[in-house]
């Protein structure tokens, strides 16, 4: 307060060293009795108002001049970026270049079409492709960026549309799905029930049937038609036996339901145990035999049947890849799809060996070991953690359709 040293000592002794006590002395009173440089304005209210008004105007002008300054390059409406793939050219509206180390500047398409609009039972099932995926730009330009983006995306809430991270995947219509599949001699799924559900979802897309596309509805009883309808097609308790394993079965039993103009061949080999039974290996070798000179794609899925033991999964994979290579050499491409995240219905007895921590570690470790063997890896933990699961393990129809579309994006970017 500008008091002298003697005043300070007196104050300290009189207040018992109270550090929040301020001493008022005659010298401090005299200090504030001097005129200030603005004392000439003191008597006039008008002058005060003028000064305040000037400050207000200057501050307002400064604020608006700063807020109008562009923070980035201007966006040019209608600009397009073309990202070529092997079959389809992905085109979308773009604002700024994408960086692989940064999250992309997302521009969503509010008016994206519902690719299920013409599907059978679309109104009864009340499922739109817009419920599953909200498209944005840029589209991932190659397999590496596509797999990374699809594996590391997320949802804004439970069962919200899934969005890859950094760049987007394509959501193909049925005609595009047919065109992609027809480029291959065959697409083979090898693994557990999760891979069977991918086959079922692909059949929904090629049959244009959201109600019964994944199941053998041509031989259903009245009870099965009721139990295995729409979202319940993937209920492993009531409808697992009725799942479609091969598109060739559809061709022979209900050929008019396939919308593809060209031949397609998608099949499933359920191989889950290690050691692998000899008859299962013989069946795989017979099914993998090429029928044309086109490329073959193999999608693997494994893990829960051996409690996420990476060494056992690797042994399983080596036996199968050796069998495939023995039949067709190196004329095939592989993708390993790791298991779904655990849901709240998963029994408590499995929460340690097959809970979300174990699943995340398994996904990371398997991704590293299969890549070293020339097989690409698609993680599904991020995609499935906020998706509905019947038993805490298996996704419903909506989640499986997203997974199938992720596989279709990988197939689209393969050179076949």
TrEMBL record:
<keyword id="KW-0472">Membrane</keyword>
<keyword id="KW-0812">Transmembrane</keyword>
<protein>
    <submittedName>
        <fullName>Uncharacterized protein</fullName>
    </submittedName>
</protein>
<feature type="transmembrane region" description="Helical">
    <location>
        <begin position="48"/>
        <end position="66"/>
    </location>
</feature>
<keyword id="KW-1133">Transmembrane helix</keyword>
């Amino acid at each position: 307060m500008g008091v002298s040293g003697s005043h300070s000592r007196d104050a300290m002794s009189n207040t018992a060293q109270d550090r929040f006590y301020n001493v008022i002395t005659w010298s401090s009173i005299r200090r504030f009795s001097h005129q200030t440089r603005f004392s000439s304005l003191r008597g006039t209210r008008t002058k005060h108002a003028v000064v305040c008004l000037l400050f207000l105007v200057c501050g307002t002008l400064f604020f608006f001049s700063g807020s109008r300054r562009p923070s980035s390059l201007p966006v040019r409406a209608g600009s397009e970026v073309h990202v070529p793939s092997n079959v389809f050219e992905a085109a979308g509206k773009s604002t700024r270049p994408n960086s692989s180390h940064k999250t992309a500047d997302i521009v969503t398409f509010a008016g994206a079409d519902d690719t299920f609009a013409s599907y059978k039972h679309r109104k009864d099932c009340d499922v739109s492709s817009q419920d599953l995926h909200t498209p944005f730009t840029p589209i991932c330009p190659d397999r590496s960026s596509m797999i990374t983006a699809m594996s590391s995306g997320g949802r804004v809430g439970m069962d919200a549309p899934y969005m890859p991270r950094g760049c987007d995947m394509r959501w193909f219509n049925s005609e595009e799905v047919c065109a992609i599949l027809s480029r291959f001699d065959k697409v083979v799924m090898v693994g557990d029930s999760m891979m069977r559900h991918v086959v079922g979802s692909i059949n929904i897309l090629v049959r244009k049937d959201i109600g019964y596309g994944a199941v053998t509805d041509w031989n259903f009883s009245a009870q099965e038609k009721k139990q295995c309808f729409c979202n319940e097609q993937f209920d492993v308790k009531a409808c697992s036996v009725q799942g479609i394993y091969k598109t060739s079965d559809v061709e022979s039993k209900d050929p008019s339901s396939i919308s593809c103009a060209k031949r397609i061949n998608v099949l499933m080999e359920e191989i889950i145990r290690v050691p692998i039974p000899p008859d299962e290996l013989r069946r795989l070798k017979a099914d993998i035999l090429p029928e044309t000179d086109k490329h073959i794609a193999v999608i693997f899925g494994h893990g829960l049947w051996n409690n996420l033991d990476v060494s056992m999964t690797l042994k399983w994979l080596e036996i199968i890849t050796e069998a495939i290579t023995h039949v067709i050499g190196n004329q095939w491409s592989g993708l390993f799809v790791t298991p779904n995240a655990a849901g709240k219905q998963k029994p408590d007895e499995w929460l340690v060996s097959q809970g979300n921590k174990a699943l995340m570690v398994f996904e990371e470790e398997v991704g590293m070991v299969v890549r070293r063997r020339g097989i690409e890896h698609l993680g599904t933990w991020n995609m499935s953690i906020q998706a509905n699961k019947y038993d805490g393990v298996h996704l419903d129809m909506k989640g499986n359709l997203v997974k199938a579309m992720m596989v279709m994006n990988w197939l689209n970017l393969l050179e076949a």
